[in-house]
Specification:
The protein has eight helices and twelve strands. Helix content is 41%, strand content 22%.
Length: 226
């Protein structure tokens, strides 16, 4: 993991310098861009291992950068936002951001999340074994494929990992903290909205199933039921 190239796209110099210091201290190489257009160019040319992307950017804003990147790349993206607005965070996650932090943030936490995402990227969960059959839904961990009523359904990486976790624990309640640890790979820092957003998106993907649904267990978490 040490030596991986990280791209910071943020027009606030003091933020870039602070994050750069902490990342370089842990052995990462760091590039930076001051606006969305420059960020898109460096993502294409430099092929970073991970992008730290501010939401409020000149030229091209962070949400548009995320949208364009996700059109042809799975590079992990951590969003930074100064807005205390759940809508922006939800939109960013639905566009394909892997995680987000709200400014001001603890740089140590950011580094911990970066490391966790990179560990997951380097060693994706692809356990061997037979496909999991739950009602009319089939989850194939080896091929990372899902079918609903015989039809292939395209899932993003974390959506697949969420569904696999639910399928392996069919009928059992999984807390948001457990899902954060398993799917996002870092210790719980107090933000569970990420899980809620991805579960909501996964429910839409499974909407064609006549036999399987994800239930909310109020105050606890979620479970997959048939």
């Amino acid at each position: 993991m040490a030596g991986e190239r990280i791209l910071i796209v943020d027009d606030e110099t003091h933020i870039v310098d602070l994050v750069r210091m902490y990342l370089e201290r842990d052995g990462f190489r760091v590039d930076s861009a001051v606006d969305g257009a420059q960020g898109l160019r460096l993502i294409t040319e430099g092929r970073p291992a991970l992008v730290i992307l501010d939401l409020m950017l000149p030229e091209v804003d962070g949400l548009e950068v995320c949208r364009r990147v996700r059109a042809d790349s799975d590079v992990p993206i951590v969003m930074l936002t100064a807005r205390d607005d759940d809508v922006d965070k939800i939109v960013g996650l639905e566009l394909g951001a892997d995680d987000y932090l709200t400014k001001p943030f603890n740089p140590r936490e950011l580094v911990a999340r970066v490391k966790a995402i990179l560990r997951r990227t380097e060693h994706p969960a692809r356990p061997e074994g037979a496909p999991l059959h739950i009602g009319d839904v089939t989850v194939d961990p080896a091929r990372r494929e899902v079918t609903v009523a015989g039809q292939m359904v395209g899932l993003r990486a974390k959506e697949f990992d969420l569904l696999q976790a639910f399928a392996e624990h069919k009928g059992l309640v999984l807390t948001r903290e457990q899902l954060l640890s398993r799917v996002w790979g870092y210790d719980f820092y107090g933000e569970t909205r990420t899980v809620d957003v991805h579960v909501a998106h996964l429910r839409k993907r499974l909407a064609t199933s006549a036999t399987v649904r994800i239930e909310t267990v109020t105050g606890v978490g979620y479970k997959l039921v048939t």
